[in-house]
Amino acid sequence: MPRSRLIAIIAVVVVAVAIGGFIAYDQILKGDTTAALTLPSAAPSAATGDASSTSTPTASSAASPATGSAAPAASSGSVASGDLAGNWTIATGSVAGYRVREQLANLPAESDAVGRTGKLTGSMTLTTSGGKTTLTAGTITVDTTSITSDKTQRDQRLQNEGLQTSQYPTATFTLTQPVEVPAAALAGTASDITLVGDLDLHGVKKSVSIPAKAQLVNGTISVAGSLNFPLSDFNITPPNVGGFIVSIEDNGTLEFLVNFTKG
């Protein structure tokens, strides 16, 4: 075969691979522009019950909660301490999911890939003593099989790659250290807390510390936070399409906004 023809064939193959990779990235793996989960500026619905009864939000609809930069009036969050003690269950409007930066080969990613679900179950226990309110126990379980993003192809691949949701259908966080709830949070102002507990994800359980914010408004305690971690900590291998590695780095973020109501 003439050398010129061989070079031409190689050039065509390279171009075809590049185009095919771009199409795979654009149609399957290209991320969206969903904002991070934060506390709502207005109180969510105080309806009790399993959040799984709500429709599963997409990556775009899950971004609807406002940033919560303007705290509601203190009177809207204040309740008698005796009313705080007891068991609180996850309520409607709760959302959890992942955020990961994607990349095709060495090309920069345009945005993050975000997947979320409203199918959460769990509860927390508050105690009151000496004017202090303490979170003494809590568990949140996420149905990973219901996580959706803006690309159905990505969601389908996560069944057997990455999160491998078909093999690991749930992820659970269990509080292991008590947390004193700031008085400002109980008065309706978003306040910092740290949640220390065991995260069971992808068949691996690890102790983690999650920075979060909490507030009580109109009988609902909302907690929003995120945890950035190396995917390898939980034996998660970034998925690829046609041999193209799409994760920029071994790093991901767990995000959540969970509402609790008494009872």
Characteristic terms for this protein:
4 helices, elongated, 263 residues, Lipocalin, eight-stranded antiparallel barrel
Task: Describe this structure as you would to a colleague.
With 263 residues, the protein is an alpha+beta fold. The chain has a single domain (3-262), classed as Lipocalin (Beta Barrel). Helices cover 16% and strands 38% of the residues. It contains four helices and 13 strands. It has helices at 3-29, 81-84, 152-157, 183-186; strands spanning 86-90, 95-101, 112-117, 120-129, 132-143, 170-175, 179-181, 191-201, 204-217, 220-229, 240-241, 244-245, 252-262. The strands form two sheets. The chain has an eight-stranded antiparallel β-barrel with strand order 1-4-5-6-8-9-10-13. A hairpin with a 2-residue loop joins strand 8 (191-201) and strand 9.
Report the strand count.
Answer: 13
The major pleated sheet works out as: 8 strands, antiparallel, barrel
The residue ranges in which pLDDT falls below 50 over 5 or more consecutive positions are 11-31, 45-75
Main sheet strand line-up: 1-4-5-6-8-9-10-13
What is the CATH class name?
Answer: Mainly Beta
Roughly how much helix do the residues carry, as a percent range?
Answer: 10-25%
Separate helix tally: 4
What class, by secondary structure content? alpha+beta
CATH topology: Lipocalin
Globally, the shape reads: elongated
Please tell me the total number of domains: 1
- The CATH H-level superfamily is Lipid/polyisoprenoid-binding, YceI-like
Q: What is the end-to-end distance?
A: 79 Å
| Percent strand | 35-45%
What's the CATH architecture? Beta Barrel
Radius of gyration, rounded? Answer: 22 Å
| SSE series | HHEEEEEHEEHEEEEEE
The pLDDT mean sits at 77
